[in-house]
């Protein structure tokens, strides 16, 4: 019986480069032995997510997510909750393409990214699960909260497209004088942190916002998150931390907690209790604190290039 593959692509990703590459991608999938078809996402909310769920329930063996990190996140959310999950492949066409970078997928040539499937190399990857008061969300790369997380979702698309990684540095310098602190309780495998913080990051790969050393010890399928807690500090020291993060030296700073954990519970306490503090999942706001995270070890099988 022929295996079936469904390409789910965002037509506006990568400066609208995806539509003209659809035929080549489908040809690669046919070469790989799949009966292939395509779905063009629409502006409708959760378009990619709903199509991924439909395809998985109809027995498709492979779902190819083509677009930016947001499209990949939607497709993952469309299948992660299912008992029977298809394989996934990704074709990066966004600005930073963090997850593609972590999986060794070519990020500057759409047909070459598709041809990774022909190598038939797969790996079961960890998936993050975030439980808010009224909903559950999944993520593949990063969960974060605190004022510094604006670095991931506060940079306008046009600026990211024009400046790439430099956009994050410019945004960071702009934010420093206006940073706020939150009083939180973080409960993780090895302990509890209670007090003020500027940000926490829960990472699953070593690539965040285009930087490859923020989570220097990240593994892709060990069932563990990398947790970074940034304690309050003066703007000058935070600028220093940003510079150290470029080469992974920030984890030794006394204003940083860096550890591994299978789970995390984050809640506001004290004067911060009752605030609407957003939680960023793979570059988009996924919900608001309080939130509990669990690592779903080796939950989805991906085609990889490394």
UniProtKB/TrEMBL annotation:
GO terms for molecular function: ATP binding; ATP-dependent diacylglycerol kinase activity; metal ion binding. PROSITE patterns: DAGK. It is an enzyme of class 2 (transferase). PANTHER family: LIPID KINASE YEGS (PTHR12358:SF106), SPHINGOSINE KINASE (PTHR12358). GO terms for cellular component: plasma membrane. The keyword Transcription does not apply. Keywords: ATP-binding, Kinase, Lipid biosynthesis, Lipid metabolism, Magnesium, Metal-binding, Nucleotide-binding, Phospholipid biosynthesis, Phospholipid metabolism, Transferase. Its cofactor is Mg(2+). Belongs to the diacylglycerol/lipid kinase family. Gene3D superfamilies: 2.60.200.40, Probable inorganic polyphosphate/atp-NAD kinase, domain 1 (3.40.50.10330). This is Putative lipid kinase. Its EC number is 2.7.1.-. Residues 1-134 form the DAGKc domain. It holds the Pfam family YegS_C. It comes from Lactobacillus amylolyticus DSM 11664. NCBIfam families: PRK13055.1, YegS/Rv2252/BmrU family lipid kinase. One of its GO terms (biological process) is phospholipid biosynthetic process.
């Amino acid at each position: 019986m022929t295996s079936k593959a469904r390409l789910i692509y965002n037509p506006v990703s990568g400066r609208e480069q995806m539509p003209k590459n659809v035929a080549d991608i489908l040809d690669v999938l046919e070469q790989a032995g799949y009966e292939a078809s395509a779905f063009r996402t629409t502006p409708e909310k959760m378009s990619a997510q709903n199509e991924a769920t439909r395809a998985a329930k109809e027995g498709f063996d492979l779902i190819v997510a083509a677009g930016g990190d947001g499209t990949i996140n939607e497709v993952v959310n469309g299948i992660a909750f299912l008992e029977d999950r298809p394989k996934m492949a990704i074709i990066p066409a966004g600005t930073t393409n963090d997850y593609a970078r972590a999986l060794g997928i070519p990020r500057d040539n759409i047909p070459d990214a598709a041809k990774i499937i022909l190598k038939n190399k797969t790996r079961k990857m960890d998936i993050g699960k975030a439980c808010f008061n009224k909903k559950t969300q999944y993520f593949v790369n990063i969960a974060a909260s605190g004022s510094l997380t604006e670095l991931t979702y506060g940079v306008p698309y046009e600026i990211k497209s024009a400046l790439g990684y430099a956009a994050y540095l410019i945004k960071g310098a702009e934010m420093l004088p206006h940073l706020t602190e939150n009083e939180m309780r973080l409960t993780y495998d090895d302990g509890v942190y209670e007090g003020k913080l500027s940000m926490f990051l829960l990472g699953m790969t070593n690539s965040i916002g285009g930087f490859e050393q923020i989570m220097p010890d990240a593994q892709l399928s060990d069932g563990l998150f990398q947790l970074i807690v940034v304690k309050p500090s003066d703007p000058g020291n935070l600028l220093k931390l940003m510079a150290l993060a470029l080469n992974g030296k920030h984890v030794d700073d006394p204003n940083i907690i860096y550890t591994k954990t299978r789970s995390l519970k984050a809640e506001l306490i004290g004067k911060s209790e009752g605030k609407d503090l957003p939680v960023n999942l793979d570059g988009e706001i996924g919900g608001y604190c309080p939130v509990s995270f669990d690592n779903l070890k080796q939950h989805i099988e991906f085609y990889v290039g490394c």
